[in-house]
Structures are given as C-alpha cells and as structure tokens.
Amino acid sequence: MNVLKPHLQSTVFTLLERNKSQRQIQRLTGIDRKTIRRYQAMFESEKSASANSPMVTTGSETAVTQTPPPPRPPATDGSSKTTTFNFARSASEPHREWIEQQVRLRRNAQAIYQDLVDQFAFTASYESVKRFVRALRHTDPEQFDRLAFAPGEEAQVDYGEGALTRDPKTGRYRRPRLFVMTLRYSRRSFRRVVWKSSKQVWAQLHEEAFRYFGGAVSYVVLDNLREGVITPDLYEPGINRLYEAMLEHYGVVADPARVRDPNRKEFSA
To answer: What DSSP letter does each residue of 61-129 carry, written as one string?
Structure first.
C-alpha cells in the first residue's frame, strides 16, 4: 500500500475540501488516482464522523469540533541517564576525587580500574568502575585550559593554500601558498602569498614578518613541515640548519607542534 508523506496527505485533503476531482488532483500533484481514491474515502469517513459529533455554538456561528492532534511524545531529558545513577551506592565513590582527575586526563576505565587495584587495594569489580566512569563523563563537561601569553611571547606560523590564481610568470592557474604568522597575544597577523617555497624562502618570510611587527617573539610554534622541521619528534625535533641559524640570530626558539594536535596551534590557520 502506497503511504503518502504527511505534506502530500495535507495537499490531497486540502484539494478535496475545495471539491477538486480526482483527475485534477492527479494533474496537480502527480499522485496515482488509486491512491487519491483511497485518501478520498478516508477524508469522507472523517468528514461524516465529524458531522455526527456534537456541535459548538458561538454566537450566530456554528463550528464543528475538530479531532485533537495526537499527543507529542514526552521530551527526553539529556540528564535523565545521570540522575538514575546513584553515586553514593557505588563502591568507587570513596575514590571519586581521584577518579575525576583521571577522567579529566582522558584515561579509560580499564586503566583507572587497574590503578585503583594497585594503589588503593580496590576490591570491587571492573564493571562498577566502568559504570562510575561513564556516569562521570556524562555529568562532567569536557574542560579545556585557557592559555595566556605575554606580548611578544609567542607567534604561530604556517602555510595555507590559496584559491586557483593565474601565475604571473607562466600564465597558468595554480594554487599559491599563503604564509601566515599570527601573534598569540594580539592575534595580529602577517600574510604573504608565495608561488614557490623552500628553506630559504621560509626563513626570509620569517624575517619579513619580524620587520612588519617591529621585533621578534620569544618562540615560534610551527607545524612539522619540511621547510622548518627535518625530523619530527616530541622531545628533540630536528630543525633545518638555515632556519635554526636565522632564529638563533633573532633570539627565537622554534617549538614544533605535536603531530595531529590542532588545539596547540589554532590561530595561524
């Protein structure tokens, strides 16, 4: 059986109320006449049922009581799941403060349970810790640390990709690279469009940015792109020699960002 969508049903009923024929409704809506005939029967049955219902008189006008719409489903409260969990009855409640610290560090329930057993001689089951951690994550919103910087302390630098533009040298359309250096304190930015990048161009763009700002910053946070970083490493990254010598001349320290860590460097994009 072909069931029409609600808006099509309303269209058919409206046209039937206006005494349109089945052929006219088919021409206007494109709905098959068999389907229109079935909904016409439904419409006539509802119309006859409403005609037999009690009338409500208001002044000189008479109106037919309409069938009330079906009740809406009860609204779901996002906190209902957390209110059903009884923290006080959980075996993990005595260690709640420590567990909350571990949850903020984004440790999973298995690791938290293992440390509870090792450090606090925890005797309850892993499932109890799992339920406790799940409830804490549902009630405690994700937190982020706000970083504060002094003027001239840090700058973030990166390359972006521009839109298709005609290369003035070749006449062909290419995507240029956009060099961006942004100060963390004031968020003031220096931008330059380049068609070709290299280690030397990368270092020269830094010098142009320092001249534009009227001075150098204490350290620069950059991505692990090859113009600046030879060997990405969390503790001892390998900086290319030309770039390192340029930064040393200005007294600037390079601080490559962690791989796939956008929260550490978000202003230079």
So the answer is: EEEEPPPPPPPPPPPPPTTHHHHTS-STTSTTGGGHHHHHHHHHTT--HHHHHHHHHHHH---S-HHHH
Whether 12 and 108 map to the same domain: the answer is no
Q: What is the pLDDT of residues 87-133, one digit of tens each?
A: 778 889 899 899 988 988 888 988 999 999 999 989 888 998 998 99
Q: Are residues 128 and 161 in the same domain?
A: no
What string of DSSP letters covers 237-266?
-EE-HHHHHHHHHHT-EEEEPPTT-GGGS-
| Residue finishing a domain among 105, 139, 173 | 139
CA dihedral 109, 110, 111, 114 (to 10 degrees): 120
Task: Tell the residue number behind the tokens 């001249």, with chain if given.
Answer: 211
Give the integer Cα–Cα distance in Å for 56 and 11: 27
CA distances from 59 to 51, 53, 62, 108 (A): 20, 19, 8, 70
pTM score of the predicted model: 0.46
Number of domains in the chain: 3
Domain-located, residue 226:
yes
Cross-strand partners of 160: 178
Do both 215 and 132 map to the same domain?
A: no
Same domain, yes or no: 228 and 162: yes
The whole domain housing 90 covers 81-139
State pLDDT tens for residues 154-178: 999 999 888 888 888 888 888 999 9
Pair 173, 260 in one domain: yes
Supply 256's token pair.
Answer: 């490559």
